[in-house]
Write a structure and sequence with these properties.
Elements (H helix, E strand, L loop, with lengths): L7 H31 L10 H9 L3 H18 L16 H4 L1
Helix pairs in contact: 1-3
């Protein structure tokens, strides 16, 4: 029998929790970018949201807005739990819907 030097049950729980965080990451990034843009929190260092995203995150304009748009789609899907029981886990899964 293999011993790993750690509790397999807590290992599995930690792994599941971290995987869930990764799956939600694009949605959380979109929400954060939307708030930065809408509240103009970038203005202390940059003239435009696009410049800010390029300098801070290396995101071009289209990438920044795709992530925001994807988060908007997920927000809409969350309003319909009776229809959608599995939410997207990547921005690319909702890109067409966001256009």
């Amino acid at each position: 029998m293999w011993t790993f030097g750690f509790d397999l049950k807590s290992y599995g729980a930690n792994r599941s929790r971290l995987e869930h965080q990764v799956e939600k990451a694009f949605w959380q990034a979109g929400i954060a970018l939307r708030e930065l843009r809408d509240r103009k929190l970038y203005r202390s260092t940059h003239k435009t949201f696009e410049e800010y995203c390029k300098d801070r995150f290396s995101y071009n304009r289209s990438c920044s807005y795709q992530i925001i748009d994807a988060a908007d789609v997920v927000d809409k899907l969350k309003e319909c739990p009776q229809i959608v029981d599995i939410l997207p886990t990547a921005e690319g899964q909702v890109r067409q819907e966001a256009d």
